[in-house]
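Late entry, written up from scratch paper. The run itself happened at the end of the previous shift, but nothing got recorded in the book at the time, so transcribing now.
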Amino acid sequence: MVVCSELPNNPGGSITNSAETIVAGVILANELITPLVWIEHWPEEITEGQETFELVVFSSYEVVERAPYLGETRAWIGDATWKRLGRATVEALVGGKV
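Output as recorded:
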């Protein structure tokens, strides 16, 4: 299970807009077994006081190489879908405080 938090001062694309690429990179870099549970976290300071958690499910967990972007080949997995989760559900999934 991975909980990925959006940083308040992130100068790049959001974790939502880059989910398929971020997850593929995390899977490769950490040699994770798939499918995995991926949760996006948006803290209060980014969401105007409404912290959110989203379970992200991918249409495929096979990591593939995509055509070069800015001269760099990128890993990618299938299309993402999101489902809102409450803090209590996330804490039950991870077995502790988040």
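The mean pLDDT is 90.
(Scratch paper discarded after transcription.)
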